[in-house]
Amino acid sequence: MAEKKLKETREQPKKAYAYMRISGRSQIGKGKYGLITQKEDINEAAKINKISIRRWYDDISTGTNVEREDFQEMTDDLEENPDVKFIIISRMSRLGRNVREILNWYYELEKRGVRLITSDGGIIDTDTSAGKMSFYIQCVFAEIELDTMRAQMTKGLKKYIEKHGQPGKKNKGKTYKVKK
Predict the structure, then answer these.
(1) Number of structural domains, the chain?
(2) What's 70's domain CATH number?
(3) Per-residue pLDDT, 160
(4) Domain containing 39: what range?
(5) Sheet containing strand 86-89, strands side by side
(6) pLDDT of residue 132
(7) Which of 23, 90, 108, 120 is in the most buried spot, having the most CB atoms within 10 Å?
(8) Model-level pTM?
(9) 8: helix, coil or strand?
(10) How far apart are CA 104 and CA 172, in angstroms?
């Protein structure tokens, strides 16, 4: 009889979906922040927070693309499974690279009673001022990270063109002007 009471008073296991995203297939492999590394980070976050992962979703798409197949499927599945109360991601940039898009999506989750967990920041708690600040800072860093990558790629491309000519085309003694 005591055993039955103990089972009845136990807390229901917390359920989550896990979401991973990489920008391209070149991010798959050892030493890259690809799906394997994200999965390890998410599993660790689930273990720390005592959460059971019900399903994994992963996209190979840029963070600026909001029409990601598995991402959309996950949001649809949330509608059908109200017992799932958490989404675990490895870091905020996996959701997107635009503050407005991340915030819009987060507030939709919040309306449904779903909490977001990042493996590098824990449960996002916007009920407190400090929690809101931390969340907003993570969103801003996700966007700044994209801006920084674009600037570095542009700089590298300009240097390459100056030295070797247009990439992907045979340089037959032609010179290319680089926008400054």
Answers:
(1) 1
(2) 3.40.50.1390
(3) 72
(4) 12-146
(5) 51-60, 14-22, 86-89, 115-118, 122-123
(6) 81
(7) 90
(8) 0.68
(9) helix
(10) 50
Q: Which two tokens stand for residue 67?
A: 């029409």
Q: For residue 120, is it within any domain?
A: yes
Compute the distance between CA of residue 122 and CA of residue 88 in angstroms, rounded to an integer: 9
Predicted pLDDT at 9: 41
160 domain residue, yes or no: no
CA angle 131, 132, 138 (to 5 degrees): 90
Q: Which residue has the higher pLDDT, 174 or 86?
A: 86
DSSP per-residue letters across 83-150: T--EEEESSGGGT-S-HHHHHHHHHHHHHTT-EEEETTTEE--TTSHHHHHHHHHHHHHHHHHHHHHH
pLDDT averaged over the chain? 77
CA terminus-to-terminus distance, the chain: 80
Residue 43 in any domain: the answer is: yes
pLDDT of residue 140: 81
Residue 54 lies in a domain: yes
